[in-house]
Amino acid sequence: MRSLSLRPGVAMAVYAHPDDADVAAGGVMALWASQGCEMHLVVVCDGSKGAHGSKTTPERMREVRRDELELAADLLGVRRVHRLEVPDGDVSNSAELRARLVGLIRAWRPEVILAPDPTATFFGGVYVNHRDHRETGWALLDAAAPAAAMPLYFPEQGSAHQVSRLLLSGTHEPDVAIDVSAAIDVKVKAVLAHHSQTGDDAQGVSDVVRGRASQAGRALGLAFAEAFRSVELAG
């Protein structure tokens, strides 16, 4: 594990559900935005099935989570949110999704993309990584390497663009960590903005977020960090 310091001019986060980016990489997103980075967030799913009870409807959940997403993105300093509105549970690494991601990459030309590591499936014998997360990760990998960089892939989606680096979160093989000590308070607020997912125990959620970030930074002597698998696609 090594410490990584980046200051991209344009970056993109591509995640499945409305709260995923905040949980996985909200510290990095807030840090970069505060440094002047043009931060884009792509949310693949519509959030319509993210309820822990049956006293609501998919339509209502979609509205609630859209409002939560807008609040969280504003807190993080995200320049623009791109909602693809795929129903929860229906994400697949299809040509259609890859084309949409290639189009966004070519339109906004990020230097760095944050995304879920699709190879991570089981966590500690108590959690299975959601299919939406895995399929989003695979689609993004295929869109960024090689499709977005090669003009004969999806030529209707604009001129080719080579992403320099992918940072994959939720990985079993992290090799870099980014110091987010200056942004940890903002990350906590952004995670708590997703009240439909976090519930009423704000202090408990805050403790978990800070605890995980503390653990990620401990080996490098950082107060708070976020860890990733780094893939360098271009120098």
How would you describe this protein?
With 235 residues, the chain is α/β, with parallel strands linked by helices. It has a single domain (2-232), classed as LmbE-like (Rossmann fold). Helices cover 39% and strands 21% of the residues. The chain has seven helices and ten strands. It has helices at 20-34, 58-76, 95-108, 131-144, 184-192, 195-198, 202-218; strands at residues 2-3, 10-15, 38-45, 80-86, 112-116, 122-123, 127-128, 165-169, 176-179, 225-232. The strands form two sheets. The protein has an eight-stranded mixed sheet, with helices on both faces. Strand 3, helix 2 (58-76) and strand 4 form a beta-alpha-beta unit. Helix 1 (20-34) runs antiparallel to helix 5 (184-192) and helix 3 crosses helix 4. The longest helix is centred in the N-terminal third of the chain and has 19 residues, at 58-76.
Overview features:
235 residues; alpha/beta; two-stranded antiparallel ribbon; globular; eight-stranded mixed beta sheet; Rossmann fold
Helix content: 25-40%
Describe the sheet with the most strands. 8 strands, mixed
What is the fold-level CATH name, i.e. the topology? Rossmann fold
Mean pLDDT: 96
Overall geometry comes to globular
Q: Strands of the largest sheet, in order across it? A: 1-9-10-8-5-2-3-4
The CATH superfamily title: LmbE-like
Which CATH class? Alpha Beta
